[in-house]
Amino acid sequence: MRFALFLMLAGCPAPTAPEATPEAAVPAVAEPATLPTEREASEPQPDAPVLPKPESATALESMLMAQHSEDLPDKAKLDTVDGAAAGLAWLADFGDPLVLRARALDLLGYYPPGAEQLRTTARESSLPKLQAAALFGLARTDLAADPQGRELARTLARHSDERVAMAAVAALKTVPEEAAFLAELAADEAVMAPVREAAAE
Amino acid sequence: MRGALFLLALTACGGTNVDFTVGDCPADAPVLGQAGTFTVESWDVTWTWARKDRMSWAPPIYAIVPDDITSLAVTVDAGTNFGGFGWLEVGGEVFVDGSLYEGETAWGDAPLYHWPEVAGTVVLPMNQQTWPNPGCMVVLPAVDGNADGESGTVHIGTRRFDAGDGLLDVNLVVVEGVDITQDELDASVAVMRSLYEAGGGPSLGAVNTYTVNTDGGDVIRSEGADIASLRATEVGDGTGLNMFFITDFSDDSGTLGIAAGIPGPIGIPGTSGSGVVLAVGANLTGDGSAVDTQLLGETMAHEAGHQFGLFHSTEETGEHDIIADTPDCPMSADADGDGALYAEECVEHDGANFMFWVAGDFRQDEITATQADMLYYSPATR
Question: Residue A168's closest CA among A149, A192, A193?
Answer without folding.
Answer: A149
